[in-house]
C-alpha cells in the first residue's frame, strides 16, 4: 500500500508528484532529474477534487524520502504532528496576515528528522492581497530542502506574483465511477448507495462521503430540492429561503458546536481554570480571541452549507434543462425524475436558464457579504416568476 492509494481519478497529477518526490530523494550521483522538482507548488482543481489530500500525500513522500512514503511518516502527517510539516488552514472567511507571517518564519528552519521541511497552505485563495505579499519573499528564496505546497480552486484565485513563483498542477474532476469505487473500498457502503452519492455530489469526494454515510443528509438534500420545485407564490419563496438558512445553520452547528465546546474546555484547562470557576479578568482576552475565531468558523460553515444547497439547485435546473433540450442521458437527480419531467414540461429552456443565472448571482452576492437570506429570497422569486409564467 502506498501513500497515493486513496487518491482517486488523478493519475496524471500523481505521476507528476511521484516523479518530483523521486527526484527530491535522489542524490546528485544518481542523476536526479532536477527539472522534476520545484521548491514551490500550486495544486488547483474544483472543490472536492482532492487538492489537500494530494498535497499531504506529496508532503509525506518528500518528508520520508521515499516516493511512496513509509508507515511512520504517513501516520504522523495524517495526524498533522510531524515536526517537519507545517500547515496553515482557515475555518474563517479569510487567512489572517499574522498566520502567514508565522508560517513564513517557520520556513527558515531546517528539517529535523525528515528529508525536507514541507509547508502546506490550504485554501490559499482566501489570502487577501496584503497577506499574499507577505508570502512572496519566502516563495522566491526558500531555504534548501524547504518545499511550499499551496492549494486553491484555480490559478486566477492568486495574485500574479504568487503564480509566477510556483509550479502549478491542475486536478481534474474525478469520474462518478472513480468516486463510487473509493466510497465502497474506504467506507464500506453498498455500490448502489455509493453511486447515488457520487452522482448527487457531482464527484465532490467529501460531499459524496457525507451523502453516502448519512441517510439524514440524503433526505435533507431531497427535501430541499423538492421544495425548490414547489414554489408558486411569494410566501412559498420566502418560506423556502428561511428553511434553507435553517438547514444550512443546523449543518453548521452539527459541525462546529461540539468542537467549539471541546476547544473552550481545553483552553480553560491549559490556562489553569477549573470547571465552574470564574474566569479571571487577565485571561478574558485570550478566551475572547478564541470565541472570535469560533464565530468566524461558524460564519464560513454557514456560507459553505448555503453554497452546497445552491450547487444542488444548479444540478436540479441543469437536469430540467437537459430534458427540455431532449438530452436525458445524464440526469444527476434520477430519484426525482418524475418531478423534474413535470417541471420541464411546464416551462421553457429560456426560463430554466434564467433560474440558473439567478443561482449564479446568488452565489456571487453571498460571497460579497450580502445577507444570505436576502440573496436566497431574490433567487427563489425568480423560480416563482418562471413557473407562474408557464402556468
TrEMBL record:
One of its GO terms (biological process) is DNA-templated DNA replication. It comes from Orlajensenia leifsoniae. Its EC number is 2.7.7.7. InterPro entries: DNA_Rep/Repair_Clamp_Loader, P-loop_NTPase. Pfam families: DNA_pol3_delta2 (PF13177). Keywords: Nucleotidyltransferase, Transferase. This is DNA polymerase III subunit delta. GO terms for molecular function: DNA-directed DNA polymerase activity. The lineage of its organism: Bacteria, Bacillati, Actinomycetota, Actinomycetes, Micrococcales. The keyword Electron transport does not apply.
Amino acid at each position: 500500500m502506498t501513500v497515493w492509494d486513496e487518491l482517486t481519478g488523478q493519475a496524471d497529477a500523481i505521476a507528476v508528484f511521484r516523479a518530483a518526490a523521486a527526484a527530491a530523494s535522489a542524490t546528485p550521483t544518481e542523476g536526479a532529474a532536477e527539472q522534476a522538482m520545484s521548491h514551490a507548488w500550486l495544486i488547483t482543481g474544483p472543490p472536492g477534487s482532492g487538492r489537500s489530500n494530494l498535497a499531504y500525500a506529496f508532503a509525506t513522500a518528500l518528508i520520508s524520502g521515499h516516493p511512496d512514503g513509509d508507515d511512520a511518516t504517513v501516520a504522523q502527517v495524517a495526524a498533522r504532528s510531524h515536526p517537519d510539516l507545517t500547515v496553515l488552514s482557515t475555518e474563517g472567511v479569510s487567512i489572517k496576515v499574522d498566520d502567514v507571517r508565522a508560517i513564513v518564519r517557520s520556513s527558515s528552519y531546517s528539517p529535523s528528522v525528515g528529508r525536507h521541511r514541507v509547508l502546506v497552505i490550504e485554501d490559499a485563495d482566501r489570502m487577501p492581497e496584503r497577506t499574499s505579499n507577505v508570502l512572496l519573499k519566502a516563495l522566491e528564496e526558500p531555504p534548501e530542502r524547504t518545499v511550499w505546497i499551496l492549494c486553491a480552486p484555480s490559478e486566477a484565485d492568486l495574485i500574479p506574483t504568487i503564480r509566477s513563483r510556483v509550479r502549478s498542477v491542475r486536478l481534474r474532476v474525478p469520474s462518478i465511477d472513480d468516486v463510487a469505487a473509493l466510497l465502497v473500498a474506504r467506507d464500506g457502503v453498498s455500490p448502489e448507495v455509493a453511486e447515488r452519492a457520487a452522482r448527487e455530489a457531482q464527484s465532490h469526494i467529501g460531499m459524496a462521503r457525507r451523502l453516502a454515510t448519512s441517510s439524514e443528509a440524503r433526505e435533507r438534500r431531497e427535501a430541499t430540492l423538492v421544495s425548490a420545485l414547489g414554489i408558486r407564490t411569494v410566501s412559498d419563496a420566502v418560506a423556502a429561503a428561511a428553511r434553507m438558512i435553517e438547514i444550512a445553520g443546523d449543518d453548521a452547528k452539527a459541525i462546529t458546536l461540539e468542537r467549539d465546546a471541546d476547544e473552550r474546555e481545553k483552553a480553560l484547562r491549559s490556562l489553569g481554570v477549573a470547571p465552574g470557576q470564574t474566569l479571571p479578568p487577565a485571561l478574558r482576552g485570550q478566551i475572547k480571541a478564541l470565541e472570535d475565531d469560533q464565530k468566524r468558523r461558524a460564519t464560513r460553515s454557514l456560507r459553505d452549507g448555503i453554497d452546497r444547497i445552491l450547487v444542488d439547485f444548479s444540478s436540479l435546473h441543469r437536469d430540467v434543462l437537459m430534458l427540455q433540450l431532449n438530452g436525458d442521458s445524464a440526469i444527476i437527480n434520477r430519484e426525482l425524475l418524475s418531478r423534474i419531467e413535470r417541471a420541464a414540461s411546464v416551462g421553457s429552456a429560456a426560463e430554466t436558464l434564467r433560474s440558473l443565472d439567478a443561482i449564479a448571482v446568488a452565489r456571487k452576492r453571498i460571497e460579497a457579504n450580502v445577507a444570505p437570506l436576502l440573496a436566497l429570497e431574490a433567487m427563489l422569486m425568480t423560480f416563482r416568476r418562471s413557473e407562474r409564467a408557464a402556468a
